[in-house]
Amino acid sequence: MSDTLNQEETLEQQIERIVNQQVAKALDSQIIELKKQLQAPQKKKQARKVAIIASKGTLDMAYPPLILATAAAAMGAEVQIFFTFYGLNILRKDKNASLQVAPIGNPAMPVPIPNIIGMLPGMTPAATKMMQGMFSKHNVQTIPQLLQDAVELDVKLIGCQMTMDVMNIKKELFVDGVEIGGAATFLKFAFDADVSLFI
Amino acid sequence: MSQEFKVAQVLDARGKSCPGPIIALKKAFKNIEAGEVLEVQATDPGSVEDFKAWTEETGNLLLDSRSSGGVYTYYIQKSED
Fold first, then answer.
1. What domain range is B18 assigned to?
2. Structure ipTM over 0.90, yes or no
3. Is A78 on the interface with B (CB under 8 A)?
């Protein structure tokens, strides 16, 4: 009788031991798996997002959105530029190589020009020529070149539908690779962006 | 003490202004393998801080940066993707 009991106990103990072993093994592999999962997101972090609105069409104001967009893309970020109002000129094949800067009402010109002289015919082309010369002397890329870089770096270029309609600008005037969208298109991306800029 | 690195490729970004050097760097990095070292030469003084920022952000390793006669030389090792 006692012999059978002992045997039963031993059997129970055996079962318990085996179960414990199996559970421990299963837990161990689960823990290893969880640790892997924990480390994984740190290793492969999600790409940062940069959302830029380009609303100006003068030579000086065309640079910042393109410089920041290409730099951000070069740093691995996902970048969108939303071109609206005068900013659409940056996208235009017929205009983006000849964007201008006006000396009138611009006291920050490298060589300040009094408004009464700045208003004379020929002053805007002269100021533009001077600024273009300064850029090229320092090997700063031209606007068309920067735009080309942006396309190559997968920067998403979006033309604003509404302002295109208002100013009667057709998509065919733009460089290749431009998408057309509205405020919601930009905002949907910008909601999750790490950097949002209005230029 | 200038350490020598086994350089896989040399990128000449001399004369380029911001953001030229880091755009060129990004493009050149596509053509080297993880573990390999890219040597970059630049003359843009802004590249000193820009290359530091670029490597920190992208997780690649700036092994060394040197400057001599207006030319900055960087040694950057590509990390695993």
1. 7-77
2. no
3. no
Please give the structure tokens belonging to residue A182: 């509205």
Instruction: Mark whether B18 is an active-site residue.
Output: yes
Asked if B74 and B51 count as a contact pair (C-beta separation under 8 A), the reply is yes
Domain that holds residue A4: 1-37
Who among A70, A76, A140 is closest to B23 (CB)?
A70
Nearest to A114 by CA among B31, A123, A59, A65: A123
CB A85 within 8 A of CB A55: yes
Residue A69 within any structural domain of the chain: yes
- Within chain A, which residues score under 50 in pLDDT? 1-2
